[in-house]
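Late entry, evening session. Most of the bench is empty. Finally got around to the prediction I had been postponing all week. Sequence below, unchanged from the version circulated by S.P.
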Amino acid sequence: MDTYQFAEDLGTFLVESVKIDPLDLNREFVEMPARLAYWNSNFADATERWLTAKADYESAKAAARLRYRFMPRPDGKLPSKEDVDAMIVLDEEVRAAQTVFISASVDKTRVQGIVESLCTKRDMLQSFGAKIRAELRGDPMLRDQMTVGSVMDFGVNEQP
């Protein structure tokens, strides 16, 4: 997944995904695990692409080093380590692998940020739920009308 192509929509999505609707906590609690699972899966995929791109980049550098290490200079001498390093940096295959690696790194970081924002929302929901439960326990009118189970569930297990 190349999240860069969705950059404009991504900003809107992130703002919307971390908002908490206090009037619809049931939906918030129900949707949170699925959202987090979805983006964790995307993060795993991005990490796999990053690791593969990193390995390909390292392999390309190693192959280029082997190619250039024994390639004689115009004066007939073998190139110095600095010469080989410079040739590796300029090598087209290495540059292409590096570009893929950089793109995979950016994508991994972007998806990781989404996962972290959703984890923050999950933590906020837990705090919000604990606060509501405490407030409900303190209200004698509500305490008499509600069972402990329905207060703890916020109506998640209720039948329509």
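Two things to note before I forget:
The CA atoms of residues 24 and 154 lie 10 Å apart.
DSSP finds six helices and no strands in the chain.
Will write this up properly tomorrow.
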